Structure to design on (343 residues):
């Protein structure tokens, strides 16, 4: 195995939510001398999911070994991937879109395809299914860059609104001071 | 005039409480000119507080007039500012010249009234709404050693904010 010298890796990890997943995984990585970068960790459908940037002088194999005991003990699925990444490169979103409606097939595909066509670059998307089994509601939160301004997005999304989906487009006005 | 260096967190100096201005003199005017120039040189550049340049006096400048279509008071030079009334609450995204490469959601009053000395030492009343009110509250926090990082709310906080205008 070739030595990966101080490159970023993405750790993706998923498993039934149990106490201590985050503390045990990050402690194991810390003990091997790895540096942690940006991360997103959340519960999805009772599973705990982690996307975590890890920088280390170790090979992928060595990194995998370092968390193997925790992964086995907590019955997780994990994988490391070499990625092209850097920190301190945040782009600023200029538009926030909230979408909600009765859950139906295609609501995400419809909305995101429409956004793509309208020149919208998704930077962050989180969605939930709320309501109950009989009447599920789909709620989606999107942030990103509307290349042609938020009005173009609003117009493009009209065709989705016709299908009974509620959509709110708000410019994000970041105040830096 | 000069562009001054901006202190950046984790510099602990940003966490200290600034002292009231007592002398309204030539030296103050010189500092105000430098502070304003520093504000305009920065990214965003709609506000700055004296402690951000390592001068721990209760001075802030806010000028949001570059933003189209909003109500504002022009260039406000706020010395010993005090907020008198708060009204409404709104989540908005903020960043700070002292905290590069991060923006986060903060709840601020939507409408405020305040009193502050002008460079000549006279007491002036202001009314600020929306974006300008947000900038003023952000700057006044600096005078008390608070950063927007001390007031972050979840990114999903947006969910509770439905616009009522339009
Ligand atoms: Zn600031």
């Amino acid at each position: 195995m070739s030595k990966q010298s101080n490159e970023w890796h993405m750790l993706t990890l998923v498993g039934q939510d149990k106490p201590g997943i985050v503390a045990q995984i990050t402690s194991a990585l810390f003990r091997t001398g790895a540096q942690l970068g940006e991360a997103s960790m959340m519960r999805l459908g009772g599973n705990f999911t982690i996307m975590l940037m890890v920088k280390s002088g170790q090979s992928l194999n060595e990194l995998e070994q370092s968390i193997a005991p925790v992964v086995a003990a907590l019955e997780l699925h994990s994988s490391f991937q070499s990625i092209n990444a850097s920190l301190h490169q945040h782009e600023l979103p200029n538009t926030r879109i909230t979408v909600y409606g009765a859950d139906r097939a295609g609501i995400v595909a419809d909305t995101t395809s429409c956004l793509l066509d309208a020149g919208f670059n998704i930077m962050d998307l989180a969605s939930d299914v709320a309501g109950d089994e009989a009447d599920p509601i789909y709620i989606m939160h999107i942030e990103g860059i509307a290349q042609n301004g938020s009005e173009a997005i609003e117009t493009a999304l009209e065709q989705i609104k016709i299908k009974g989906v509620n959509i709110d487009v708000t410019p994000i006005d970041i105040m830096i001071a | 005039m000069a562009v001054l260096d901006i202190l950046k967190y984790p510099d602990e100096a940003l966490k200290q409480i600034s002292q009231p201005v007592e002398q309204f003199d030539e030296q103050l005017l010189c500092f105000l000119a430098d502070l304003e120039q520093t504000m305009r040189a920065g990214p965003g550049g709609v506000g700055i507080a004296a402690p951000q340049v390592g001068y721990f006096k209760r001075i802030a400048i806010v000028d949001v007039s570059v933003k189209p279509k909003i109500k504002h008071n022009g260039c406000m030079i706020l010395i010993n500012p005090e907020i008198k009334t708060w009204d409404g609450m709104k989540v908005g995204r903020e960043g700070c010249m002292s905290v590069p490469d991060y923006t986060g959601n903060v709840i601020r009053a939507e409408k405020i009234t305040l009193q502050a000395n002008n460079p000549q030492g006279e007491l002036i009343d202001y009314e600020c709404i929306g974006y300008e009110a947000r900038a003023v509250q952000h700057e006044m926090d600096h005078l008390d050693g608070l950063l927007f990082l001390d007031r972050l709310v979840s990114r999903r906080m947006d969910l509770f904010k439905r616009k009522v205008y339009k």
Remarks:
- The two ends of chain A are 48 Å apart (CA to CA).
- The CA atoms of residues 37 and 168 of chain A lie 32 Å apart.
- The pocket of zinc ion is lined by residues A 177; B 96-98, 138, 142 (CB under 6 Å).
- Chain A has a mean pLDDT of 92.
